[in-house]
Amino acid sequence: MELWRDRYQTERFVFEGREAVVVFPEKAEEKRRWALKTEYFTAFQDLEEKLVERGFHLLYLQNRNRWGTADDLAAKKRFADAVTRKHALREKGVLIGMSCGGLHAIKQAAAYPEMAALLYLDAPVVNLLSCPFGLGACPTAIGENAKKEALDALGLDMSGLIAYRDHPLDRIGEVIRHRIPALLVWGDADTIVPFAENGQAVLDAYRRTDIPFLTQSKPGGDHHPHGPAEMKEAVEFILAHA
Predict the structure, then answer these.
(1) CB-based contacts of 241: which residues, under 8 Å, 6+ apart?
(2) Are 188 and 218 in contact, with CB atoms under 8 Å apart?
(3) Mean pLDDT across 218-237
(4) For a designed S-S bond to 23, which of 58, 78, 100, 231 qualifies (C-beta 3.0 to 4.6 A apart)?
């Protein structure tokens, strides 16, 4: 159930054949800021609700798949451009990425840095060899259906996956080059997207820079539930750096 169904005006429409949603705050903040949730729109919405409460518009566009293919990234850029023009919003927004949504957020920011003011990455999938293919610490956490889904979406077989060089891991350097602030949330007992094989790469990359960066760990936390460990700190970081 969407947290704002009865509280906020919500516009639902079709954009280029895809489900699209814009949630309007009761009063838009003066900076006309917005956030785009990159996947799983109705899941774990606490952070988005806090941002809408603060005057952010919230955007969502349905993906063809959850593996960050170029057509989905390009569609989100066109969608964001159309919505920001129509509603006089800022050019750059917060990209909210949870799990595979984090995969999308990293690749979106790398491909279209002109639309990314800040990344919120929550247990992000960064290395596909880890998730969904389970070649690391958690080999049985993701089922065979997810593996087939990913290969089909990317047009690969397992041999092609070995040589694949478009993991989010391969795009973090581009995000860093454009100095995009980030907030990273992770559980240290994640059995689906192990932090050491995924989020750790984001943490290491940002710690070598002076780019605004906040990390929140959840001791004993598994992959779910998503959401900031410290909501107030997370919202204040976004307000300060988006």
Answers:
(1) 117, 118, 181, 212
(2) yes
(3) 97
(4) 58
